[in-house]
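tool_call: predict_structure(chain=1)
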Amino acid sequence: MPDTDGVSLVEVTFTFGGREIKAALKEKGEKDGELRAAASATLLAIEQAVDGRLKCGLADLDRVNALGKELIAVLVNLEYKGNRVQLFGSCQIAGSEIDVTVKATLNATNRFVELALRS
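tool_result:
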C-alpha cells in the first residue's frame, strides 16, 4: 500500500525448489508505484531463486486492452550468460492487480528461469 509520501512497499514470497524466497521493494509513484514494486520484487525473488544465474529489471509496465480483455503487461530486461534480451509477459486482470502483476512478471521470465536452472 502507498504511504503518505506516495511510496509503495510490496513483499512477495515464493516457495521454489523446497525453499521459501522473499523479496521486498519500495517504489515511488502514485499511479502504478505499487504494481511496479510488485513486478520488481518478483524479479528480485526470481534472481534469488536461480542463485543469481540471471539478472533482470523492470523496463516497463502498463494496463492494456487486447482482444477485448484487460491485461497487465510487463517488459523485462534480462541478462543471462552475457546476453541481454527483453521479455514480454502478460496476465488478464481478474482480482488483485498486484497478484496479476506478479503473474505477468512470472509469465515473462519463466522460460529463462527454466533455462538457467538447467545450466
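agent: The domain at 7-118 is CATH 3.30.160 (Double Stranded RNA Binding Domain). Proceeding to next step.
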